[in-house]
Design a protein that fits this description.
The chain has 124 residues and is of the alpha+beta class. Helices cover 23% and strands 23% of the residues. It has three helices and four strands, in the order αββββαα. Strands 1-2-3-4 form a four-stranded antiparallel beta sheet.
């Protein structure tokens, strides 16, 4: 998808913020946004041990709508971020990490055979 490639080039992680489905099960509206978008929430009940927040209400997002013929239409595009982006560290972001099929198959075979994890990583 274009916005995912754009996010990788610019150095930010993207998430699917909301999506609505029609009665036939296909998505009709989707909002893809920066992973820093949204309001921060308290995730722990202990106020002394607060965890760091990544949500800083970043306004960057893309709103897509499906037309009657099945094609997607861009309804709204906001590209401005209110935080720094890091293109050099993008490979560590969860949404941009991937394993090719050959490596995935090799990991599965090593797991089936019972080869230790440290030996598996040495073989890669």
């Amino acid at each position: 998808m274009f916005y995912c490639r754009f996010a990788k080039e610019e150095g930010f992680a993207m998430i699917k913020r909301t999506s609505k489905k029609r009665c036939d099960g296909q998505s009709s509206n989707v909002i893809l946004s920066c992973s820093h978008g949204g309001k921060p929430r308290m995730r722990t009940s202990n106020p002394v041990k607060q965890r760091p927040q990544t949500k800083i209400q970043c306004p960057a997002h893309v709103t897509l709508g499906r037309m009657g013929n099945g094609m997607w239409r861009l309804n709204r595009v906001v590209l401005e971020h209110n935080h720094d982006q890091s293109p050099l560290k993008v490979k560590y972001l969860t949404c941009h990490r991937s394993i090719d099929e050959h490596t995935k198959r090799r990991l599965e075979l090593h797991d089936i055979v019972g080869i230790n994890l440290n030996k598996t990583f040495d073989a890669l």
